[in-house]
């Protein structure tokens, strides 16, 4: 066996192998045998060559590439969402508010007042027996105009309280929460002191004890009318003569009317429909009423029934209504006072003093509602809501205090 060798060659591993010389890098000798050779399948038909296809316009290619891009689809979703949000905002929020604003301005136009023959209540005042229309609060109860020095208590406070409805326990708790001091504080109630709750008589006695002020609410009005009718029929104490058909289908109301003592009933009868509080800093002329007021009508000409019961108001003739289907009276009243303030803003040193702020109850549906010129304090205490006090201190400083109430609604029937 010969032993051949070469200086730059590679040797085989056995006698049966021929020596191979590689003159290029090994990678050049690698072959992918699994690939299909073109010659083997050259007899098969081929697809149309690129040159034979109709050329797609470049602008279409650009549009297709843009539309099929993931980023474009995201932008479409974002912009469509923004467009839909703008439409919904305009349709259901901005447009209705603009329409309402225009309707409020038109309803307060003096020319419209002349066209409809005057606003409701501006021509005549209906009178009712045993009802006090208007009363002025003693000015000595009002807070002073100067804000107390830091750390110093107020000299005088007005504590305005919403509908109590006979909830004496909650009322006493609220008075503790506001640190009531009968020497420096004066209580003012927005009506509906009695009825529905567990201790109407106790509430009346408590208010009489503290020499509180109040306005006549729709519940006081109903109970007092029942009592006067029972007295007039000489059957106040004769239960056998209690004919429901003559005195309405309200047995609990008749029962409460009979339970009131002469002193309690007389005190409730002195509560006016409208209480004129006088000027208070930052609030202007402050008026307390149970239901509401028609803007632009003098206090002494306000319709008593409407002042105790109104919820909404007709924008055309300013006729108030107990229905909730309409414009809430506070919207029209706030707009009226806002225009009044603007008219005096540059001509009067204190334009706020030319405006009126109404503090009211009656509307537990909207609960606490503190607007610029209207303050609603009925927060549904007797229904398990809250009893609310608006504390007005020296300098016109305001604070809201509330306590939780029990639910007495199951006892109404």
Automatic annotation (TrEMBL):
GO BP of this protein: polyphosphate catabolic process
Residue stretches spanning the membrane: 75-93
InterPro entries named among the record's database cross-references: Ap4A_hydrolase, Calcineurin-like_PHP, Metallo-depent_PP-like
Gene Ontology cellular component list: cytoplasm
Record domain Calcineurin-like phosphoesterase: where: 157-330
One MF term in the entry's GO annotations: endopolyphosphatase activity
Domain of life: Eukaryota
Keywords: Membrane, Transmembrane, Transmembrane helix
Pfam families attached to this UniProt entry: Metallophos
PANTHER family according to UniProt: METALLOPHOSPHOESTERASE, ZINC-DEPENDENT ENDOPOLYPHOSPHATASE
Protein name: Calcineurin-like phosphoesterase domain-containing protein
Lineage, top ranks: Eukaryota, Fungi, Dikarya, Ascomycota, Pezizomycotina
